[in-house]
Amino acid sequence: MLKRLTIQNYALIESLDISFPEHLIIITGETGAGKSILFGALSLLLGAKADSSVLNNKEKNCIVEAEFEAEEEIMLRRVISPLGRSRMFLNDEPIGIEELKEISSKLVDIHAQHQQLLLSDKKFQLSVLDYFSGNTLLLESYNTIYYKYLSFQSQLKDLDRKVIELEKSKEYKQFQYNQLVESHLVEGELEELENEQKQLANAEDIKNNILQAVSLFNQNEISIVQNLKEAETLLHKAVAYIPDISELVQRLSFSRIELKDIECDLYDRVDKIVASPERLLVVDERIAVIYNLFRKHNVSSVSDLISIRENLSCDLEMSVDCMLEREKLCKEITSLQKECSVLADQLHCKRIKASKALSETLQKSIKTLEMPHAIFEVKVIERDIWAKDGKDDVLFYFSANGSSGIKELSRCASGGELSRIMLCIKALMAKYVGMPTMIFDEIDTGVSGSIADKMGELIGEMGENMQVFAITHLPQVASKGSAHYLVYKEFNDKNEAKSGIRQISGEERILEIARMLSGTKLSEAAIANAKVLLGEKN
């Protein structure tokens, strides 16, 4: 229940701090006093849209705070800054707007003026039947499977688009991949080929240069190496007389050995250099292949070609993987379709079964509100396709004058009839939803007299089991409350209007009921009538 409400700087309310009791609470006041403003502020705690236009003083924050007593005490607060920014709090801890809506929706239900128009909404009609049928858990299970099914369907569409794109380029990519694979590319290959090409193209010149160099080792049949050997022998003899010359002998020995090795290597190189036009042709063709691939793929190295080959391989494997993934996804979708079908069938059966009982229950309740010949029927129509609520449409049919004139509710009921029907539905739903607090903002619009009295009795019955607020302009309803609050408007020295609210009882309550009966000018008859109404309540 709503224990306490604090409002600061909201519309005509400058500052308000008020506590509320249990059971039926009546809210009255003259037109324009601000009755609906009070619960307009409260609706901010239910997640209603808010901006700086609700601020009375544009330089201060608007603050709405409510203390609820449920299984534990809950404090909700919403703060709106002059810039229109909104902050929400649960027990002084910041929360988001969706969390605020979820929490408050379990604490209070506000029936705003003209909300009876919901009766024309098929979704609302379906929700009434589902609450009555006890379908909440089953519907949650169905929703879980259905939204998973939709998600998988979306994934399948994306995958199909991907597969189509992959298939469009698959043949060309396969050709490119095969060409690169058949090219047997190797890292560093081009550099080796280009070096070999230079050697093969200049083989004779290279061989002649090396031979000429070798010939200098034995010019005029005199061997450089042999001469160094002889010089080494001669110097060695001088070592006995000049010991430190041994170092030069050693260096000369090393040089001779190195020159001998160079001479041998040059001879080996000459033997290995072979002029081969056939091999040169093979090398030229291989280099041409590689450079053609460079141009085709717009790259400049064998490493780049190898990377392209690997990427093409991944793309081709992706196409196969996508097909396998698609096959798996289709199996999942088929399984989810079966689950959806089973749960949708269960929902349909429960709705069909409950629709007759709901029709009878509401019809009985409606008849008590001065519509003795009312016919109310709930029809369940099965669709061909699923939606988030199953495969059913629910339509309310109504006639105030017997079965001959029964039509869709939205096409035949008057405003007063809609108000009475909505009250009956709200009373019924309150039992099944377990809502601790319900607020009616002039649900009695369009009715009067004995009908209003009957509606007051029904609202009073609801108040025996839960906290009910009724903003009303009808004395018959106002007299039924266990607590009565008056909303009033007053003006300050600057002729600025301010709204306030206070609890009234005793003589003051009698006068308020009399005002509702006769208007601003109170008559003795109105006062007497007010006493009768309040006396009947007691």
Gist?
The chain is built from 16 helices and 15 strands. With 538 residues, the protein is an alpha/beta fold.
Question: Which features does this protein show?
Answer:
538 residues; six-stranded mixed beta sheet; alpha/beta; Rossmann fold; 56% helix
CA-atom Rg in angstroms? 48 Å
Q: What's the CATH architecture of the domain at 1-107 and 435-504?
A: 3-Layer(aba) Sandwich
| Tally of DSSP helical segments | 16
Number of strands: 15
Main β sheet profile: 6 strands, antiparallel
On the 0-100 scale, what is the average pLDDT? 87
CATH fold category name of the domain at 1-107 and 435-504: Rossmann fold
Low-confidence stretches: none
Oligomeric composition of the shown chains: single chain
State the separation between the terminal residues, measured CA to CA: 24 Å
CATH superfamily of the domain at 1-107 and 435-504: P-loop containing nucleotide triphosphate hydrolases
Shape: elongated
Structural class: alpha/beta
Biggest sheet strand order reads 2-1-4-5-6-7
Please state roughly what percent of the residues sit in beta strands, choosing from under 5%, 5-15%, 15-25%, 25-35%, 35-45% or over 45%.
15-25%
Text of the CATH class of the domain at 1-107 and 435-504: Alpha Beta
Helix content percent band: 55-70%
Account of the protein in words:
By secondary structure, this protein is of the alpha/beta class. Among the domains are: 1-107 and 435-504, P-loop containing nucleotide triphosphate hydrolases (Rossmann fold), CATH 3.40.50.300; 161-321, no CATH class; 505-538. It has 16 helices and 15 strands. The chain has helices at residues 35-43, 97-104, 122-133, 136-182, 189-201, 203-215, 224-238, 246-272, 277-297, 302-367, 409-412, 415-433, 449-465, 475-478, 506-518, 524-537; strands at 2-10, 13-19, 24-28, 62-69, 73-80, 86-90, 93-95, 108-111, 375-387, 390-399, 407-408, 437-441, 467-471, 483-491, 497-504. Strands 2-1-4-5-6-7 form a 6-stranded antiparallel beta sheet. The chain has a 6-stranded mixed beta sheet with strand order 8-12-13-3-14-15. A 3-stranded antiparallel beta sheet has the order 9-10-11. Strand 12 (437-441), helix 13 and strand 13 form a beta-alpha-beta unit. Helix 5 runs antiparallel to helix 9 (277-297). It is elongated. It starts with a strand and ends with a helix. The mean pLDDT is 87.
